[in-house]
Design a protein that fits this description.
Elements lengths: L3 E4 L1 H10 L3 E6 L2 E5 L5 E5 L3 E5 L3 E6 L2 E3 L20 E4 L4 E5 L8 E13 L6 E8 L2 E4 L3 E2 L5 E7 L11 H6 L1 E5 L10 E13 L20 E6 L3
Antiparallel strand pairs: 1-5, 2-3, 2-17, 3-4, 5-16, 6-9, 7-8, 8-16, 9-15, 10-14, 10-16, 11-12, 11-13, 11-15
Length: 232
């Protein structure tokens, strides 16, 4: 069973800090978070977030699971260390996509962000693509390089690439997310993926909105920078 988490802007902000992310820029409703391995995440503190993790296999199941269970079960957890013992691996353009649990279906969607946590055995062949699958069509992010340690990366989509229009909740309920491993001239070195999930950034309808979280309610003209701001 997949995981679905719906959070207010303040809940999301606090959770990311509790996971080791740092706030490196904060000005009014705008913030930039930095993950422990260096991924930047720009957020608008007037918007809320729904996080969906894989619930069943998608149309493409080409990676090898470790341990041998349905592939989606190896990438649906929120764990993190480099000693992770559940992952899918392969090489040479092999792909996996995963279905998602039902969304809440509330609010106006601003964008979606698909995250993967990956590493490679060797730095000779390291490129990979983050995938989404919409209406039986697969769309690829630009190629990104892995390292020999697990690193979180993402791909942002502000529109449904099939309809070339804003995302709807019906689109989200039919969405598949996934990854394509490196294309290798001599298939030898394996890549691992241990997490795949999507965040839906949305604005709640006016009737259901709470007071937005703001870093500082006083008028200001200068942004504030916090190179090491965490929980304390």
């Amino acid at each position: 069973m997949g995981v679905s988490i719906r959070e207010t802007c303040q809940e999301y902000f606090k959770r990311r800090l509790s996971e080791g992310w740092k706030c490196i820029w904060l000005d009014g409703y705008n913030a930039i978070l930095l993950s422990p391995d260096g991924l930047r995440r720009e957020i608008d503190l007037r918007n809320d977030t729904e996080t969906l993790r894989p619930s069943t296999a998608g149309d493409l199941t080409e990676l090898d699971p470790v341990p041998v269970v349905p592939n989606w079960q190896n990438v649906d957890d929120t764990g993190g260390g480099d000693d992770d013992t559940t992952y899918n691996n392969q090489y040479d353009d092999f792909r996996d996509t995963y279905n998602l649990p039902a969304s809440s279906g509330s609010g106006t969607i601003n964008k979606i962000t698909v995250y993967v946590r990956v590493k490679t055995e060797n730095l000779l062949e390291t490129d990979y693509n983050i995938l989404i699958r919409v209406s039986s069509t697969t769309y690829y992010s630009s190629k990104t390089n892995m390292t020999t340690s697990y690193v979180l990366n993402n791909a942002i989509r502000t529109q449904n690439p099939y309809t070339v229009a804003a995302w709807t909740w019906a689109d989200i309920d039919a969405l598949q997310i996934g990854i394509q491993m490196a294309s290798q001239a001599v298939p030898t070195y394996w890549q691992r993926v241990t997490q795949v999930y999507v965040e839906i950034d949305y604005t709640e309808a006016a009737a259901g909105r709470k007071t937005p979280f703001r870093a500082d309610s006083r008028p200001r003209t200068r942004a504030r920078f916090f190179p090491t701001l965490g929980l304390g």
